[in-house]
Write a structure and sequence with these properties.
Blueprint lengths: L12 H28 L7 H6 L8 E2 L2 E2 L3 H14 L1 H21 L2 H13 L4 E4 L15 E5 L2 E12 L6 E8 L7 E7 L5 E2 L14 E12 L11 H35 L1 E2 L2 E2 L4 H29 L5 H25 L11 H13 L4 H13 L6
Parallel strand pairs: 3-6, 4-6
Antiparallel strand pairs: 1-2, 4-5, 5-9, 6-7, 8-9, 10-11
Helix pairs in contact: 1-3, 3-4, 3-6, 4-5, 4-6, 6-7, 6-8, 6-9, 7-8, 8-9, 8-10
The protein binds flavin-adenine dinucleotide.
Length: 387
């Protein structure tokens, strides 16, 4: 596997173990079937609990069954999962960074004990409802609201593009709390089988097909008052979750690009035209050289992010730079790998075109490329250009 400047030589024993476990899981359990799942538009749900048994959901958290592994180990896990498919990594990212993380960071003791062990083991599935039909890049304008009624909250609104919602047991729903001055955004843990909650699936996606995406519609959905996450108010709640998930994406995108590169490198050695392997042509070597260089520089950024996160110096803007750069890199390199495979590059037996289509989602969700540009622009100039 491409590790051109030997970054993996510095991994400790636990980090190697996690990388190898994820790599083996992908090769033995998923890779053969992922193309068919992608064509069928299904997620391999039979793997949800196995991924839990292997510790793939938020292993970087501490307690409630999570082992608190290093941020590098967590990043490597995301990289290996996305080397298979962005949908597989999305499942683990949502469950860990967008559902378990907010419960761990902002939940009550009862909420942590109720949900974290089950989510960590893959005995329950979670989803994260922030985006609405009319509010994507600007979620602070959300319309979903919660009104207090006795010892319950009544939720109304509509969330869309929600990864895992049709298979989720619980949704972290972000809504404006009308019973508190200023209508602050608050997080609610909403079981999806409650009256008034529906989670219709979004069909016919042309990207991230091996991932289930849906809505979370709330019509007078009642939850007990202790369903609110007590530890946070305002947009810093959902945004801090996004920082965790974007960190994983910055690593994951490198995995998708690496898989494209390895597929193209192998093909260039095997495929013969004009009396020998196509890898002997300078044109093909130039493509591989550029791909390897771009992947290696993205890897360096991901490893640096892990160091900063480990010592508490990671800023959301650092994560924006890495998400923006590494996903763009993967999105630009996947078509190069595809073209190196000629006609074979357009069939599902080979991964580059599947990665190419998936990366359109990765480029768009968790803050579009444009939005991360604006975040960096504001950080660099002190001038916000969002409106
Ligand atoms: C497969 C998939 C899974 C997803 N999973 C989840 C999930 O689990 N939970 C969740 O809450 N959301 C999820 N999302 C939603 C995702 O986060 C949003 O699609 C994303 O934030 C963009 O919002 P939008 O689609 O409404 O686009 P819009 O915000 O309408 O943007 C449209 C275009 O305008 C650009 N734009 C917007 N504002 C500006 C500006 N100020 N300056 C310049 N350009 C701008 C954007 O960059 C984009 O190119 C998912 C999306 C997809 C596709």
């Amino acid at each position: 596997m491409l590790d051109y400047v030997g970054l993996e030589g510095d991994l400790d024993e636990e980090e190697r173990l996690i990388r190898d476990t994820a790599r083996r899981f992908v090769e033995e359990e998923v890779r053969d079937d992922i193309g068919q799942h992608w064509i069928d538009g299904t997620f391999p749900t039979d793997l949800v609990s196995e991924m839990g048994d292997l510790g793939f959901y938020a292993p970087n958290l501490e307690g409630y069954g999570s082992p608190n592994v290093s941020e590098t180990a967590y990043g490597l896990l995301m990289q290996e999962l996305e080397a298979c498919d962005s949908g597989l990594r999305s499942m683990a990212s949502v469950q860990g960074a967008l559902v378990m993380y907010p419960i761990h960071a902002f939940g009550s003791e009862e909420q942590k004990e109720r949900w974290l062990p089950d989510l960590g083991a893959g005995d329950a599935v979670g989803c994260f409802g922030l985006t609405e039909p009319e509010h994507g890049s600007n979620p602070s304008a959300m319309e979903t609201r919660a009104e207090k009624d006795g010892d319950e909250y009544v939720l109304n609104g509509s969330k869309t593009w929600i990864t895992n919602s049709p298979i989720a047991d619980v949704a972290v729903v972000w809504a404006k709390d009308r019973s508190t001055d200023g209508d602050p955004v608050r997080g609610f843990l909403v079981e999806t089988d409650r009256d008034g909650v529906t989670t219709n699936e979004i069909d016919e996606k042309l990207s991230l097909r091996a991932s289930v995406t849906g809505e979370v519609s709330l019509q007078d959905a009642r939850v007990p008052e202790d369903a609110v996450l007590p530890g946070v108010e305002g947009m810093k709640g959902p945004l801090s979750c996004l920082t965790q998930a974007r960190y994983g994406i910055a690593w994951g995108a490198v995995g998708a690009a690496r898989d494209c590169f390895e597929t193209a490198r192998q093909y260039a050695t095997d495929r013969e035209q004009f009396g020998g392997p196509i890898g002997r042509f300078q044109l093909q070597q130039q493509k591989l050289a550029e791909m390897a260089t771009q992947i290696t520089t993205a890897q360096l950024l991901a490893y640096r992010l892990a160091e900063l996160k480990e010592r508490g110096d990671l800023r959301p803007q650092h994560v924006s730079m890495a998400k923006r750069n590494n996903v763009r890199m993967a999105r630009e390199q996947a078509p190069v790998a595809r073209e190196m495979l000629g006609g074979n590059g357009i069939v599902a037996d080979h991964s580059p075109m599947r990665h190419m289509a998936n990366l359109e989602t990765v480029y768009t969700y968790e803050g579009t490329h444009d939005i991360h540009t604006l975040i960096l622009g504001e950080d660099l100039t002190g001038i916000a250009a969002f409106e």
